[in-house]
Amino acid sequence: MYKQLDRSQLLVRPLHERHNKVLIERDAVHLDAPLNSLPPESQRVLQETVERIRTARDAGRAVVLAFGAHTIKNGLGPVLIRLIESGWVTHLATNGAGIIHDWEFAFQGKSSEDVRRYVNEGQFGIWDETGFNINLALTIGACAGMGYGEAVGALIENESLIIPATDELTGSAAALDLAESIRRLNLKPGKRVVPHPYKRFSVQAAAYRHGVPFTGHPQFGHDIIYTHPASCGAAIGRTAERDFLRFAHSISQIDGGVYLSIGSAVMSPMIFEKSLSMSNNVSIQQTGKPIRDHFIVVVDLAASTWDWQHDGEPPTDNAAYYLRYCKTFARMGGTMRYAHANNRDFLPALWHGLEGSTV
């Protein structure tokens, strides 16, 4: 057998000792602030996106918004919450880091540690409250049939976790995993109160409150919660798999709908292509044809001079070929547009356009 690192040997420090670079009350993006201008081509993409979302929602079609963790870290929670509340998006998806930043903002009003400093100190990511609470929420959620984002959203919205008695946890593997976690962490049964004084900034809580799917798509070893002794890989796998299949269901409804990929170079294109392939598999069996009438808009900071619609896929000796998110989405049928823009500029402008303000 190969040796493993023993997480019980780690010195796990309390979260309040960590220096954070982003304070949500100071850095949040608010919709009453003046809009920053977009490059002309991105402005045209924005206008087309507004029109396609309006058409999709009028027809009851899906509008899925997938985003990288910087969308949360950049303070865009209030904008995403308004998009949920206004009914413009029907599904949100992010990676494991997006889940964590959203939770930390809700719990302590700040997030984003100094990676260079804390790696050198042997402390990066090894913080108690983040690892303990998110892992416990996932382990409880796995037993309750919840998804990854749903489990964390419920924790934030309810500001509590219900710890069952271990003798009640029998039968399923998820129940046995939860019983083992309760014993290992020496938890008492009953309601465990976890205040989230800044939960008004939480996108996960808003999605849970409004019944809008918010799915988490983590990768093992990518996120700081894996450093905590409370981590349960089976629970992470169960909740993440449910979320992937929930995401795939929304993509199966994307014909006539809109998919927005905001600042996600890997997670969003990867889960979309597998989900669309599965959806096409079913659609072809049922209707004889794949999903065709979907609109994809990709937003990122990297400049792209390649015309994906007119010129097709670039050759492999062209640097544009290695903009994976463009290359992947250009292969996904429908219509794809790329907007070179800061998400702090694009998303507020999108909401104002949808609400009828100046775009």
Detailed description of the structure:
With 359 residues, the protein is α/β, with parallel strands linked by helices. It has one domain: 3-Layer(aba) Sandwich (Rossmann fold), CATH 3.40.50. 47% of the residues lie in helices and 13% in strands. It has 15 helices and 10 strands. The protein has helices at residues 24-27, 40-58, 69-73, 77-85, 96-108, 115-120, 128-143, 148-158, 173-184, 203-210, 233-252, 267-287, 308-311, 324-330, 343-354, and strands at residues 20-23, 63-67, 91-95, 110-113, 160-163, 190-193, 214-217, 258-262, 295-300, 335-340. The strands form 3 sheets. A 6-stranded parallel sheet has the order 7-3-2-8-9-10, sandwiched between helices. It has a two-stranded antiparallel sheet with strand order 1-4. Strand 8 (258-262), helix 12 (267-287) and strand 9 (295-300) form a beta-alpha-beta unit. Helix 2 packs across helix 15, helix 5 packs parallel to helix 8 and helix 12 (267-287) runs parallel beside helix 14. The chain is globular and about 60 Å long. The protein starts with 19 loop residues before the first strand and ends in a 5-residue tail after the last helix.
